[in-house]
Hints:
Blueprint: H1 30-40, H2 45-59, H3 72-99, H4 126-154, H5 167-192, H6 195-206, H7 221-227, H8 233-236, H9 241-253, H10 255-258, E1 264-267, E2 270-273, H11 277-285, H12 297-301, H13 309-326
Antiparallel strand pairs: 1-2
Helix pairs in contact: 2-9, 3-4, 3-9, 4-9, 5-9
Amino acid sequence: MASTPFNPTGEYQPESTIGLPVLYRWPPRPLAALKYLLFDMLFPWGYLIIALAFLSWYYLTPSLEAMREFEAGWIAAIWLRNAALLMLVAGGLHWWLYVRRGQGNRYKFHDKWLATENRQFLCGNQVWDNMFWSLVSGVSICTAYEAITFWLYANGYRSVPAISEHPVYFLACIIGVFFWGTIHFYCIHRLSHWPPLYRISHELHHRNLNTGPWTGISMHPIEHLLYFSVFILVWFVPVHPVVIVLLSLYMSLGPAPSHSGFNFVEIGGKRFFTGDWFHQLHHQYFNFNFGNTTSPLDQLFGSWHDGSRESLQAQKERKRRQRRATA
Length: 327
Ligand SMILES: [Zn+2]
Ligand SMILES: [Zn+2]
């Protein structure tokens, strides 16, 4: 395998800096933009999540008729489906990268493995802690929003646009999930850094300086309430149920690869992009990269960090000066 670039502390650091996606560059390059949408943005995790959304709606979700009344049975079925899929994606990545250590520390951002004796985490164990918050709070609050959404559709408060009658609208909704999810995330994440909210809620996610797949939706319940409020848009804009499930899975499963702690995962001799260097920088330095590159609001509001060595050095200096000033 090709050698990987390491910074002086022994951690992996991508060689190229993070650029603005071609979609947002001038002059427009339609073919390159299409390639970005179909490959860079969606391959492989987006396609996996879209496939799981179809599978889930047609085989693993109660029918709309069954969801007219709030009942424990169908809500529990959705909870179980969401929990099982998170176990599959986050658990699968965790098993390969951290239990089996299938690729050693190749492409690993951090030089340490996940904490097993750190009192900041429940039982001192980062993975158990992350699993607890993800499954007990994350999956439950996601399921609650999803259940309310399906109840609205089941009772006719919103119509269901048939795929056969509105195929273009359906495709636009599928792609739209990836943009809406990242725009909404930027907004609630920026809000979560407001000091009072940070202290009572978001701080829990940021205990994970070194992240793993289970860190993705390891958040405080208050942050889960904000994070999964992404569903509220489809309470007003009618979409096909596959899109509702996609929204659920994109928000709950998507952060697992992006927090995996590795820039690439190697499976069967192939290398797949996993890590989100952009968000990884947020976990290390806190004050920038609140969103994602797909919807580059950080660029618009001046909090975009491209990961270049010079700007990282400047950040380290700034932190050192802050520490000296408060010492
Ligand atoms: Zn994060
Ligand atoms: Zn944050």
